[in-house]
Design a protein that fits this description.
This is Glutamine synthetase. This protein has twelve helices and 16 strands. It is α+β, with helices and mostly antiparallel strands. Among the domains are: 42 residues, no CATH class; 255 residues, Glutamine synthetase/guanido kinase, catalytic domain (Creatine Kinase, Chain A, domain 2), CATH 3.30.590.10. Helix 6 runs antiparallel to helix 11. It is globular and about 70 Å long.
């Protein structure tokens, strides 16, 4: 992200009262939003993968589409809430639907629910019940109306967070008075790769072969350079509809790879918004018949990996004299480099090689406008003497609750010894 602006009011996690005024992302909209239709009626994307087939004006799929598009609001006050949670791998998303008696505006109005944790790798079969606690709500772009998506975290029946519940610890850190006073902002750049369904090879790549070398694909335009723009655009609009604080999107360096940015977001909101945006992307690629990959190095060789660069600032960093505060934060980050790397995503060692715009996983570094460093500081931040830093180490499959809270903990709550601080400052050529 170029810079971090003021965060939106969405961080209070409330549903807009005029949510019924907008139309949902229904299957009818795909023809203008995602799909191109040929003369025979078969609907395809520009990448020539099949999404659905309309048999006839009165055919089976057309009737199903009518059912999907039914507006039930004149008939009932009931709404559908899609409860979403993170599965046992720590990266897989799960969801199921529940009828709620009336529209809601806040998670506290929703009931807790449960699921079979033995089927998600989160509980043993003899004691499999896991409890869902609603934490954030978003408008549902697929069902529209007052229907909602509900981001939940997970607990035992006794009320203890289960091991894969990373939101719980993040919420504790973000509620610490020192952290609250510094109003931490985050801007997260989520990279992802689109794969062909049957062969698990990047979208737009010849099966079993390779496209031309990297260079023309980053922010590229044209059928030979851009693969999956329909999905990226559909996801962009779905996020805006849902109330996610999405701030942009672009094609990435490797063909078939894309990025979207979320933020600036305050505290725990950053994780909630990224997880909901990932859910929307999973649903859209599901409808498009394309596989979403968050692997940090989906293709070995001379190809860029996929990261989740995290831009971060505190109130003190954004005020006069903030550059000195940023340098103190960088010093702390250097001393906890191993702790951060271990929490920044599985398979990240395949990406952080010191090549392809990354720093080596084994060495901490920082620099101004240097994308080959662990931490990058922008030219404007240096010039203005205040601003933000960019942590370029997180992998595309990182947990945003873990990364955002760890950045706040290391820079605001953790204090190194004076000896360690002096040695690190000398090594990094920092004067703080």
């Amino acid at each position: 992200m170029a810079h971090i602006l003021a965060p939106s009011a969405q961080w209070q996690m409330r549903i807009a009262k005029n949510s019924t005024d907008a139309s949902p992302l229904t299957s009818k909209m795909w023809s203008s939003l995602v799909l191109k239709q040929n003369k025979k009626g078969a609907v395809k994307t520009s990448a020539k993968f099949r999404v659905l087939a309309v048999q006839s004006e009165n055919g089976t799929i057309n009737r199903m589409e009518q059912m999907l598009n039914l507006d039930v609001s004149p008939i009932t006050d009931k709404i559908i809430a899609e409860y979403i949670w993170i599965g046992g791998s720590g990266i897989d998303l799960r969801s199921k639907s529940r009828t709620i008696s009336k529209p809601v505006e806040h998670p506290s109005e929703l009931p807790k629910w449960n699921y079979d944790g033995s089927s998600t790798g989160q509980a043993p079969g003899e004691d499999s019940e896991v409890i869902l606690y609603p934490q954030a709500i978003f408008k549902d772009p697929f069902r529209g109306g007052n229907n909602i998506l509900v981001i939940c975290d997970t607990y035992t029946p006794q009320g203890e967070p289960i091991p894969t519940n990373k939101r719980y610890r993040a919420a504790q850190i973000f509620s610490d008075p020192k952290v609250v006073a510094e109003v931490p902002w985050y801007g997260i750049e989520q990279e992802y790769t689109l794969l062909q369904t049957n062969v698990k090879w990047p979208l737009g790549w010849p099966t079993g072969g390779y496209p031309g070398p990297q260079g023309p694909y980053y922010c590229g335009v044209g059928a030979d350079k851009s693969f999956g723009r329909d999905i990226s655009d559909a996801h962009y609009k779905a996020c805006l509809y849902a109330g996610i604080n999405i701030s942009g999107t672009n094609g990435e360096v490797m063909p078939g790879q894309w990025e979207f940015q979320v933020g600036p977001s305050v505290g725990i909101e950053a994780g909630d918004h990224i997880w909901c945006a990932r859910y929307l992307l999973e649903r859209i690629t599901e409808q498009a018949g394309v596989v979403l990959s968050l692997d940090p190095k989906p293709i070995e060789g001379d190809w860029n990996g996929a990261g989740c660069h995290t831009n971060y600032s505190t109130k003190s960093m954004r005020e006069e004299g903030g550059f000195e505060v940023i340098k103190k934060a960088i010093l702390n980050l250097s001393l906890r480099h191993r702790d951060h790397i271990s929490a920044y995503g599985e398979g990240n060692e395949r990406r952080l090689t010191g090549k392809h715009e990354t720093a080596s996983i084994d060495t901490f570094s920082w620099g101004v406008a240097n994308r080959g460093c662990s931490i990058r500081v922008g030219r404007d931040t240096e010039k203005n003497g205040k601003g933000y830093l960019e942590d370029r180490r997180p992998a595309s499959n990182m947990d945003p609750y873990v990364v955002t809270s760890l950045l706040a903990e290391t820079t605001l709550l953790w204090e190194p010894t004076l000896e360690a601080e002096a040695l690190a400052a000398q090594k990094l050529a920092l004067k703080v």
